[in-house]
Amino acid sequence: MAPAKPRSPNWVTRRQAIVDTSARIFAKSGYHGTGIAELCDANELGKGALYHYIGSKEELLAAIHDRVMDEVIRSAERVEQAGGTPRQRLTMAGDELLDIIARYPDHVWVFLHEFPALTGDRAAQFRKRRREYERSIEAIIAAGIKSGEFRKANPRLITLAWLGMHNYTYLWLKPEGKFTAHDVAKQFATVFIDGIATDHGAE
Amino acid sequence: MAPAKPRSPNWVTRRQAIVDTSARIFAKSGYHGTGIAELCDANELGKGALYHYIGSKEELLAAIHDRVMDEVIRSAERVEQAGGTPRQRLTMAGDELLDIIARYPDHVWVFLHEFPALTGDRAAQFRKRRREYERSIEAIIAAGIKSGEFRKANPRLITLAWLGMHNYTYLWLKPEGKFTAHDVAKQFATVFIDGIATDHGAE
Amino acid sequence: MAPAKPRSPNWVTRRQAIVDTSARIFAKSGYHGTGIAELCDANELGKGALYHYIGSKEELLAAIHDRVMDEVIRSAERVEQAGGTPRQRLTMAGDELLDIIARYPDHVWVFLHEFPALTGDRAAQFRKRRREYERSIEAIIAAGIKSGEFRKANPRLITLAWLGMHNYTYLWLKPEGKFTAHDVAKQFATVFIDGIATDHGAE
Amino acid sequence: MAPAKPRSPNWVTRRQAIVDTSARIFAKSGYHGTGIAELCDANELGKGALYHYIGSKEELLAAIHDRVMDEVIRSAERVEQAGGTPRQRLTMAGDELLDIIARYPDHVWVFLHEFPALTGDRAAQFRKRRREYERSIEAIIAAGIKSGEFRKANPRLITLAWLGMHNYTYLWLKPEGKFTAHDVAKQFATVFIDGIATDHGAE
DNA sequence: TATGAATGAGTCTTCATTCAT
DNA sequence: AATGAATGAAGACTCATTCAT
Predict the structure, then answer these.
(1) Which residues, 6+ apart, have CB-to-CB distance to A57 below 8 Å?
(2) In principle, which of B71, C98, D27, D53 could form an S-S bond with C185, CB 3.0–4.6 Å?
(3) CATH no. for residue B186?
(4) Over 60: is that where the pLDDT of B201 sits?
(5) C-alpha distances in Å from residue B159, one per residue of A200, B131, B193
């Protein structure tokens, strides 16, 4: 791969804006269902000018993915650095995850719906980072089982349950919605952790 | 809408086979990413003949949706007819749902990824049935809360958690996979119902 | 490469006509200078229908190349089978070559001007066959030198001189032109073979 | 046409360098196959700056043509001034021509491949100078026939043979190649002039 | 002199669909 | 029932060129 050529701060700012705007459009009409012309309209740019910023449609899609993935990976790092019991760490991870989902509803929609549209290296890179995050969750759960805090079960399966419960909120969790991310996270943590715990804090 | 033309049994059988085969292709390449030519190849049919059976690409997509939705709605009816405590009914619902997901992995993938591609009446009809199913789950949960079996919480939120946990399995639950649908369902039920229950069966 | 799917005789005929018509357009405006739209006009076909026959613009270009290359290779085979002295064989080769150039002026123009536009396997295949032909000429010249009929010289260099003299006629040799291919070939043979011969038949 | 604006010596020097560098790129990728961006890269200049020097892409192409044509025309003048027998003049013309082809392989490639891309006045001007050169060769040959040095033949046809033999070397004659321009020219002269001569120097 | 953002017509190609056979 | 030729709008993307800075 040729090294990405250096760009002016103006260019970088503008590109970021385009990535965010386009995420909204992709979330509404789907990646394949959105034409370049539609993106041009939304970004108030001619085709040539748009391509000046995005390189290609798929590169734009990858940028949207990265925008979320960067945050998700960073949240996993914060959780790891924060330490605490598995219960505390899983609670924090859920809180951070739902916060991202609520703050980037469009990006996350794209992320969870359109990842099969990534190809080649971009797809590989994306899968790698996704797996990395999932493993960080699985590590917490495995630790909890090992310590006896969580009941004996297949950690991968429990992880998948947790991920499903949390990720699936992308369909309805919105910044201006009925539930706040933090409230939902708290309730989910209660349900899920009580469900897997050996002692039940609530009682 | 014009009443559906009566068709020969042969036609119906062949159409069903085409719907199933096409689900596989859509799951692999996406609805927009799949061309009619590819469907023709997969079904070993010329374009004219294919259209003889499918009417249009979107009608084919709708048929794939219906194939799953019919099963899902029917499972909800079975659950209702079976009766029992909320705990029992929720367990059964999860078992049936995962069974469908495992038996129709391609259809379900399409169902959960490509529903935004449906337009007009077809989209409305689909949303209506989907909501209907979700309400049947919510009713069980609300009943459990009312009866005191489940702890006090927003039933909609709990429903969404349950749906996320179960629906999300479409990403990894396969007929030939490591976990059977029934096993997964049992474990999910344990976790989830323990998580929301007021008394904990495990203790 | 996937095996070319079988085509109806109608399709094959029509395709051949398209190849020939398009050669004329490419010869006039150049390969890169000709748009698909222009080809559609010339062939009285819509874009979709044109692609039904050509596969891609470059495949069309390759078909034009093949049309000539097939003839050229066949002419080399005829020369070989005809036998005779090097002088006779070289004369015959020139006669056959100019005949092809005169009969396919457009194809040959494309062949000699646009071969760098071929890529990948097609380019390799083309270079291979071209070299094959050049070697058949070089073999004749080398035989003449060895037998003493032609004077001592670098056979490759003499071959290149011969090829230049003959190929370059594509710029002016036309079926309806001032000179016939056969006349030109006869005069070229006289000049060239006298130029390299050790005895001069004319005297 | 407006009179060419007067330019600083710096500008002229830089432009010449750009013309030569661009010839290399055009020779590699073709005129239509080369984008302005590629020329900018090769010349290490932004688009605006490049246009400051070249005016337009076609003007750049014309400059490449002129670079060669100027030399070719000048060589014809030198041949004329040098005088001598037709045989001597033709030998000298071949030597000069191959020298140019070997020294400007890229320019000549462009010259011989891309001249159809010139339009309007530029195309007319180019054709005029090209014809001028060809006539100077034809004049030598006609003189040789008239004087009896060359055998009776259509001078135009003999000229075309000579031009083909020499011009066609652009495909393989390179400064660092196996054959030097001077050697090739000498051998070509021997072959060609012996081929058309009435007496044969070799005997 | 030089930059690079912007234009918008143009590139080749694919699309879902129709229809005569 | 089935074929495959035809349509023409739309697909993503590149082009040569201009111009404010």
Answers:
(1) A31, A36, A39
(2) C98
(3) 1.10.357.10
(4) no
(5) 22, 12, 12
For tokens 């961006």, name the residue.
D37
Contact D163 C168 (CB under 8 A): yes
Is A119 in CB contact (< 8 Å) with chain B?
Answer: no
- C161 vs C166: CA distance, rounded Å: 9
Q: Which residues contact A121 (CB under 8 A, 6 or more apart)?
A: A1
B109 located within any domain: yes
The pLDDT value given to residue B203: 40
Q: CB-based contact (8 Å) between A201 and chain B?
A: no
Mean pLDDT throughout D34-56?
A: 95
Confirm if C79 and C92 have CB atoms less than 8 A apart: yes
Q: Indicate yes or no: CB of B116 within 8 angstroms of CB of A33.
A: yes
By CB atoms closer than 10 A (0-12, 13-18, 19+), residue B97 is: buried
Which of D28, D101, D165 to probe by mutation at the C interface, max C CB count within 10 Å? Answer: D165
* Closest nt by CA–C1' to A51: F13
pLDDT at residue C72, as a whole number: 98
Counting the structural domains of chain D, the total is: 1
Please judge whether B168 and A163 are an interchain contact, meaning their C-beta atoms are less than 8 angstroms apart.
yes
Chain C interface includes D152 (CB < 8 A): no
CB-CB neighbors (< 8 A) of B33 in chain A: 32, 117
Residues in chain C, how many?
203
Residues from chain D that touch C117, judged by Cβ atoms under 8 A, are 30, 33
Query: Letter for the amino acid at A116?
Result: P
E20 C1': nearest CA residue: B48
pLDDT at A98 over 80: yes
Q: Are C156 and C148 in contact (CB under 8 A)?
A: no
Tokens 């590989």 found at: A124
**C153 touches C201 (CB < 8 A):** no
Tokens representing residue A132 in the block: 């990395």
| pLDDT tens digits, one per residue of B147-157 | 999 999 999 99
| pLDDT-flagged residues of chain C (< 70) | 1-3, 200-203
Structure tokens at D83: 């005088």
Helices (H) and strands (E) in chain B, counts: 9, 0
The mean of the pLDDT values for chain B is: 93
- C190/D191 CB distance under 8 A: no
Evaluate whether residue A41 is within a structural domain.
no
Q: Please say whether the beta carbons of A43 and A36 come within 8 A.
A: no
The span from the CA of B63 to the CA of B56, in Å, is 11
DSSP B65: H
Q: Quick one: closest CA in C to D181, which residue?
A: C157
Are the CB atoms for C192 and C165 separated by under 8 Å? yes
Q: Which domain holds residue D184?
A: 9-196
| Nearest alpha carbon to residue A85 among A150, A20, A163 | A150
In a domain, B91, yes or no: yes
Report how far residue A95's alpha carbon sits from residue A74's, in angstroms, rounded to the nearest whole number: 13
Tokens 């490469």 belong to residue: C1
> Is A121 within a domain?
yes
pTM over 0.85: yes
pLDDT for A57 beyond 70: yes
Residue A165 burial (10 A CB sphere; 0-12, 13-18, 19+): buried
